[in-house]
Amino acid sequence: MAVLKLYRDRLQHNYNHLDSVFKEHGIDWGIVTKLLCGEEKFLEEVLALGVKEIHDSRVTNLRAIKKVAPDVQTVYIKPAPKKSIPEIIEFADVSFQTEFEIIKLLSAEATRQKKLHKIIIMIEMGDLREGVMGEELVDFYEKVFELPGISVIGLGANFNCLHGVMPTRDKLVQLSLYKQIIEAKFNKNIQWVSGGTSVTIPLLFTHQLPKGINHFRIGEALFFGLNLFTGETFEGMHDDVFELCAEIIELTEKPMIPDGILAENPSGDNYEIDESLYGKTSHRAILDIGLLDVNPKFLIPKDELSVVGASSDMLVVELGTNDKNYKVGDVLQFSLRYMGALSILNSRYITKEIVS
C-alpha cells in the first residue's frame, strides 16, 4: 500500500522560519491549504502551527476549518460561483472577488445572514487569470463600496499561476499605487495590498519588494521550501515535509526494450526505441501507485532509479543492477513537487499519515 507521510517537525520548522521572515518585514500572511484537499488530520496539523488565517479554494474545506478552529480567519481564494454564495458567506470571512454582479449577490446574502463580508479585489497584472483590469478599478470600486454587508479590505494580484508571469518590483509598485489611488479618491482605508504567493518571497530577500506590499498567501514555500525563481530550496527550510512511500509489488530482471509491434498506449503516448539498449536488461520494479494517483513527472526518487512510466494504477521503475538488493514488499521513497502532492492528496487510494 502506498502512503503519503507528513513530517510534523519539518512543517513546524518551515512555518517558524516564514513567520519570522514576515514579522521582520511587517507583513501579514495566511496559509493556503488547497493543496491538502480537505484531509482533516493534515488540516489539524496546519492549524496547530499557530496560524491565524487560512486560505482555500473549496468551501467544503473552509467549513471543515471553521469546525475545528472557528476563530481562524478563513479566506475563499477564487471568484465565487453563484450556487456557493450562501456557504461562502457562512464559512468564509473574506473572499477574493472580480465580478460586480457576484459581489452584489454576496452583499444580499451577507445582509440576509446579518454579516459583514470582507473582500479583496483582485487586479489583473499580466498573468491573465482572474483580475479586474487596472483601468477599470476606480469605477469598479466606486460601485462596490456602496454595497451593504461588504467591506473591501484589500487589493491583490496573482503571478505565475497560469502563464508563468513572474512578479517584479515594477509590477508590485504598480499594485501598491492602485491602493493609493483608491484611498485618495474615496477617502477610504485599504488594509492590505496582497502582493502574491510563494513566488514573490525571493523579492523580500533581494530587497526588491515595495514597502506597500503588506500581505502574502503562502502554500508552496511552507510545504516544499521552494524558491520558484531558482528552483532551489530556501536556505534554512525543509523540502521534504511530504514523503511518498510506495511498495514494490513485482521485481524482475527484464529486457530494456519492449518486444512486439508498438502502438499508442492508453495514455496516448508512443514509445520510441533507443537502439543502443537492444540486448540489455535491467531490474524492473512495479510499485503500487499509478496515474490515477499522480503524474510520474512530479515524483523525485530518493534512490538511484529511473521512472519508466505508469499505467492507471501501477508505476514502473528501473533499478539497474539492483545493488541494494531490493525485493518484493520493500518500499521506495519519493519527494514530491507541488502538483504531485496535490494529486496524491486528492486520491482516496493513498493512505495519509502524520510522522511525529
Textual characterization of the structure:
α4 (85-91) crosses α5. Strands 1, 10, 11, 12, 13, 14, 15 and 16 form an eight-stranded mixed sheet that branches. Strands 2-3-4-5-6-7-8-9 form an eight-stranded parallel beta barrel, surrounded by five helices. The chain is built from ten helices and 16 strands. The model has no long low-confidence stretch (mean pLDDT 96). 28% of the residues lie in helices and 25% in strands. The chain has two domains: 7-224, Alpha-Beta Barrel (TIM Barrel); 242-355, Beta Barrel (Elongation Factor Tu (Ef-tu), domain 3). It is an alpha/beta fold.
Fold blueprint:
Elements: E1 3-7, H1 8-24, E2 28-32, H2 40-47, E3 53-56, H3 59-68, E4 73-76, H4 85-91, E5 94-97, H5 100-112, E6 117-122, H6 137-144, E7 150-156, H7 169-186, E8 192-196, H8 201-205, E9 215-218, H9 220-224, E10 242-255, E11 281-287, E12 299-301, E13 306-310, E14 315-318, E15 331-336, H10 338-345, E16 351-355
Parallel strand pairs: 1-16, 2-3, 2-9, 3-4, 4-5, 5-6, 6-7, 7-8, 8-9
Antiparallel strand pairs: 1-10, 10-11, 10-15, 11-14, 12-15, 13-14
Helix pairs in contact: 3-4, 4-5, 6-7
Throw out a few tags for this protein.
356 residues; alpha/beta; TIM Barrel; Elongation Factor Tu (Ef-tu), domain 3; 2 domains; 8-stranded mixed beta sheet; 25% strand; elongated; EC 5.1.1.1; PLP-binding_barrel
What's the quick description here?
The protein is α/β, with parallel strands linked by helices and 356 residues long. It has two domains: 7-224, TIM Barrel (Alpha-Beta Barrel); 242-355, Beta Barrel (Elongation Factor Tu (Ef-tu), domain 3). It has helices at 8-24, 40-47, 59-68, 85-91, 100-112, 137-144, 169-186, 201-205, 220-224, 338-345; strands spanning 3-7, 28-32, 53-56, 73-76, 94-97, 117-122, 150-156, 192-196, 215-218, 242-255, 281-287, 299-301, 306-310, 315-318, 331-336, 351-355.
